[in-house]
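Much of what follows relies on a compact textual record of a protein's fold. A record is reproduced here so that you can trace the correspondence yourselves:

. . .
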Amino acid sequence: MGIYTGESQIAPADHNEYVWSQIKGADGAKGARGDDGRDGRDGRDGKSSPTFNLLLKTEIPDSSAFTLNGASPKIITNDYNGRNSLEVNNNGLRGNAWRGISFISSKKEFKKGDKIVIRLPIYIYDDVTVDAGMHLALKSHIGNRQMAGFNLDGGTPRNQWVVKEFTHTVQNDFTSAGDNLFYIFTTKNGHFKIAEPYMALGDIVPVEWMPHVSELKAHSLTANARIEGTYEASTVKGLKFIVDVFYDGERLSNGYVLGGKLECGNQHGLNSRGFTYNNAGELINSLLSDGTKTDGSPITAKFDVSYQGLKTTCFARLDNLPNTKLIDEIVTKYSTFESTLEKFKSEIGEKTEKQYRLAVRRKNLLKDKSKNGSDLRFNSDNGNFEEGKVYTLIADIRGFQPDKRGRIYTSKERLTQPLSFGTNFFVFKSSSTGSDVNIDLLGDNTKLKKVEVWEGDFKESIDKEVFDVIAGGSGKILTLKTTKSKCWAVL
């Protein structure tokens, strides 16, 4: 209520001219009852969460996962959701035989009123008519007592996976004498396979398979690879590629998937997405048969192993060995030449001038024998290197980077040449008269040892079908050259 006090004869229109106060009157009469509201939503059923599987080894890793009841099942690896399946083919039977397989349950005693749920993916083939029924029974084989039975083939489409779900309330107390009470069978003929069997106490069927609680521990998958056989003079013989696979420390003989690739230089087509193998883990399709010639590159193998959802990788390598026969021949020839050296000297001038050239340099011109680094100088032992003269430097060189080249800086040409791991020969013409020889461009970590310099060219070409034999220095470096090949040996 607003009250105006002032000189105006006309009530002001501005509400701010009034002094306002609230006056509450008596409660009015109660209004009429309104209409009822809409019903609320139904609440959820109070069902429990799915529980762990009562059945053991339902990933079907091997034949220990089930027991036989007249059937001859076959494990199919990675067949359903990456897990193994179990196939049973009962055919040609003229009478009832009740052949099948049983899975092991960790629970054998059930009380009246217990609720059981079952989930079973099954694939029924149409190549064998199911003529007397296909069933799942929860039973004790000892005493032939059954707690419950379920039909599997009625209304089930053929040639495709179908997930069968069942719920059951136990009618009477039941105890199985054996633990293999989850029994899948055909009364007579039928062809089927199953995977991921599940049975649990409760009232809700899980959407996906669940394992037994004891199987929740972490699993391990390891593998070792090896190559057996010989690989000499770029030729393979008796090669075997073997992979040992272990799951939780136990060696597997089958059931895993093996892929990867083999490589060896100029051998093409060795890559493979998958390999077949026998129970010993030996590859059946190794692709490198006896007598295969290669370019001498190492044979390398990379194997990828997968099993029960786990993966691992292993490697193996086999290096080419030099021809042992050739090495023996070189050593024998060297020994022969060294022991009959004086005789060769006396006869070369008269009889074998056109067939053999023999050069012997026992004197090493250097004082230094080894050094490390990129730019190295080696001093002469006595006297100078003469300008224009030809010399041969021999050194064991190691520690350089791949594709590295070196050169004799004190040579007239200063040409570079590729370095090889081990003995290297440099033939050069001295650019000036001096007391040292300089080799450079080697790299900071390069190591040289057994360094010698001989006067003369010991890598020059010779006539066809003859040997050029060079023996010299404390390292006894021997060269045998023919028209088709050249061999160096440090003895």
